[in-house]
Amino acid sequence: MSSGGAYLEPDDHASGAAVPRRRLGVLWRLRDLMRPYRWRFVLAVTTLLAASGLSLVYPQAARYAIDVGMRGDTTSHLDLIVLGLCLVFIVNSGLIWLRHYSMSWLGERVVADLRGLVVDRVMTLPLAWFHERRTGELVGRLSSDVTVVEGVVGSELSLALRNGVQLAGGLILLFVIDVRLTLMMLLVVPPIVLSAIYFGGKLRRMSRRVQDELAKVSGHVQEAVGAIQTVQSFVREQHEAKKYRAGVEEAFRRTMEMVRWRASFWSTTTGATYIAIAVVIWLGGRAMIRGELSAGDLTSFFLYTFMVAAALGEMAGLWAGLQRAAGATERLFAVIDTVPELRDPDAPVALPPGKGALAFEGVSFAYPARPAAPVLAGVDLQVAPGEVVALVGPSGAGKSTILSLLFRFYDVSSGRVTFEGVDVRQLRLAELRHALAMVAQEPVLFSGTLRDNIAYGCADATAAQIEAAARDANAHDFITAFPEGYDTVIGERGTKLSGGQKQRVAIARALLANPRVLILDEATSNLDAESEAAVQAALARLMKGRTTIVVAHRLSTVRDANRILVVDGAGIAEQGTHDALMAKDGVYRRLVEHQLIGEERVATASAG
Fold it and tell me: What is the CATH number that goes with domain 442-514?
């Protein structure tokens, strides 16, 4: 069983088809993102070609102007040349603006779509995928890798096309002016191309290592900031800061290594280019002395030579940039191409009407990371509609795993889980999960308003429905006590609320979602007596008439359950009412006795 998706990690040492769409093949896929905007791309390319073509006129204007001056013609000819040149400048400026705007728009649009594709895919990936990766690392990739791609599409692609036109046009005109001088200049092209290929590949691998290190650093600092209370309570601020600085220094070291190679690349190509120019100047000067070239011809040849040299130099640099972007794009498309194993079936079955009938039939399960250590083995469990079932047992016995299989965060290794008589693997994930709602020990709230958090599972809820759910959850009074009421912003993870307030907001959210099955995962274990009483009253209204599964470590909270299931030894060790299980000398009774002994010790220690 895989870890949640067919995911190919890019590998520089892989060959053949082992890692698809490698190198520039990955960048070629950006074409698919640009396809919806092809007319804007056509406009950008058209204006680019026109502007680049007009730039080839400038050396010719210089040639005519110098030759007119050398012949001693009237100034009217020179006036016409300069006037025409000014008109070309004006037209070219407008074309450059339009080209720059169009290409920049295209780059920003493609990058926005790329970010959306990555997040769209990430949101559909199963929990196992996230358990193997740090969230901060993924966030780092969305910022750093996408920025690299943005530079390619928004500017470097435009520059490559512009320089390509100037290179081709300049070479043609150079051959028209003097074939022998042009061939001499072109002796430098093969070394530049070879160095571009060599340095480009080296820079690509280095860039990927830098991006990896930056993503790792981003993941670490996000993790530390997210747990800042724990960091400060254990006085680990310096440790975390030092760890972050070490990561930054490693990224700096790798970046400087890449910079050294890039500097060598630029110096090599630039040196070769200007040596060729020096040779051309020497040969051109000798040809002019011999009368084989006019002063205007030689001037225009020099100008075209500089134009071609600049285009070659920039093309070599752009090649290195494309190689850097290839490394970043590989990572992003590796996420986009991940195929979730947990997805809607090809022919889904509609969830039949019902009141929340559940069943586990011969269910066995082992986590993908520990396939040889089954958590559940041959579990059979029936939950009737409207029944309240409590799951108890030692930590790690499999209680949370049962809930994960019910939500289909994982698929069973064998057997099946049914909901309303249908195997959950035959249902649409959204339809299955809409019928379930969980109130956890540590409810997850988002940084928006109280209104947004209550309506999270029912986006089209009206204000009246939100308020009714809050009243039923005993949350309306404390919400209206805030100056902003339901529009109060509660901070990241609800940091502005107390534990009891967060629980009641979570209950209101579950009430508004109106699930068939309610799951309470230690929903009152961390509350004081007053808050627990308010939450229990709200839970009683929420549980009324619903199938309810209660996961509890505090056994005093499960006395009133219709049935208690003791999860132990990879299965259901015992089941029955509280009184019936206490009458047995089994696992449940030992759990109760151990908990009572622990509570007595705590009480004694507090009294002393």
Answer: 3.40.50.300
